[in-house]
Design brief:
This protein has helices at 2-55, 59-73, 77-134, 136-163; strands spanning 165-172, 178-186, 189-198, 202-209, 212-221, 226-232, 235-243, 249-255, 258-266, 272-279, 282-283. The chain is α+β, with helices and mostly antiparallel strands and 292 residues long. Among the domains are: 2-75; 95-163, no CATH class. A hairpin with a 3-residue loop joins strand 3 (189-198) and strand 4 (202-209). Helix 1 (2-55) packs antiparallel against helix 2, helix 2 packs antiparallel against helix 3 (77-134) and helix 3 (77-134) packs across helix 4 (136-163). The radius of gyration is 38 Å and the shape is elongated.
Length: 292
């Protein structure tokens, strides 16, 4: 009877030990699984932050987070993929800068052609004047032709004025300055070509759209500085030339009233000081001795 009782107790103890050992093993596996999921969640959280920084072009900070993920995962895959993406993004910017450089040189070539054309017209005018002296009767005939051409031109202007309303306006621009405008007005707003005096700042002549400078125009400041180029929604945007009253000038691209993209700056002796890429009105990779 005693032996039987001992065997029963022993069997119960063995069963209990087996149950708890199995339960402890299951708990250990569940803990390991939870820890693994916790690491995965941490990696996903870091990856989300790193991906956002990468899309915003904050490359150094993004690479730091990708390095943290590589350390956790014991790999270099995240950093390698980030570098591949960064290198892909650099290529379009290089191409854009190259296109801007080509556009600039094309504009300079056109400018030189126009200058040569002006010299040619001056020469033609000179020979015409001498020819008038040698042949008075021919000069009188040309004077009559010129008079008739002026009359035709005036008639054309009158026809244009019938279609376009020329008027004076007083405008308040986006800076809160008063602008006195005279030119083409459509639907009560400055639209087309016109002139304007900006309160205490300067004078503008060029194209307008809905009371804002849009298209080609020229703005002259009170201190003598002058900009000739493209405007968009009342700001300098695209290609343009800025003439400083000191004699220097900048030829290149603009964005939000700042020098942005490819551009060249010359001193008052027409000597090239800097040619390259500009960022937020400052030259990138600027060498010592060059002025902005």
């Amino acid at each position: 009877m005693k032996k039987a009782l001992i065997l029963i107790v022993f069997a119960v103890l063995c069963g209990t030990i087996y149950y708890y050992s199995t339960h402890i093993k299951d708990l250990s596996e569940k803990i390991q699984s939870l820890e693994k999921k916790e690491v995965e969640l941490e990696v996903l959280s870091i990856k989300s932050k790193a991906d956002s920084l990468l899309l915003l072009h904050h490359y150094d900070t993004a690479l730091h987070y990708y390095g943290m993920m590589d350390s956790i995962s014991n790999t270099t895959d995240y950093t390698d993929k980030a570098w591949a993406y960064i290198n892909e993004q650099k290529l379009p910017f290089d191409k854009i800068n190259e296109l801007e450089k080509r556009y600039y040189h094309k504009e300079i070539h056109i400018k030189n052609l126009k200058r040569n054309q002006t010299h040619l017209y001056d020469s033609i005018k000179f020979y015409k004047k001498n020819n008038q002296v040698l042949a008075k009767h021919k000069g009188d005939l040309e004077e009559n032709i010129e008079h008739n051409q002026k009359e035709i031109k005036n008639l054309k202007k009158e026809l244009v004025l019938k279609d376009k309303e020329i008027n004076r306006l007083e405008i308040i621009n986006h800076d809160g300055a008063e602008v006195k405008f005279i030119g083409e007005v459509i639907d009560g707003k400055a639209n087309g070509f016109g002139y304007a005096v900006f309160e205490k700042t300067g004078f503008y002549e060029g194209y307008w759209e809905n009371n804002m400078r849009n298209g080609q125009g020229q703005y002259t400041w009170g201190n003598g500085d002058r900009f000739e180029g493209n405007f968009k929604n009342d700001i300098r945007e695209g290609f343009g030339v800025y003439y400083f009253n000191s004699g220097e000038r900048y030829e290149g691209f603009w964005s939000d009233n700042l020098r942005e993209g490819f551009g060249v700056i010359f001193d008052k002796e027409d000597k090239k000081i800097f040619e390259g890429i500009w960022k937020k009105d400052k030259p990138k990779n600027k060498k010592q001795g060059m002025k902005s």
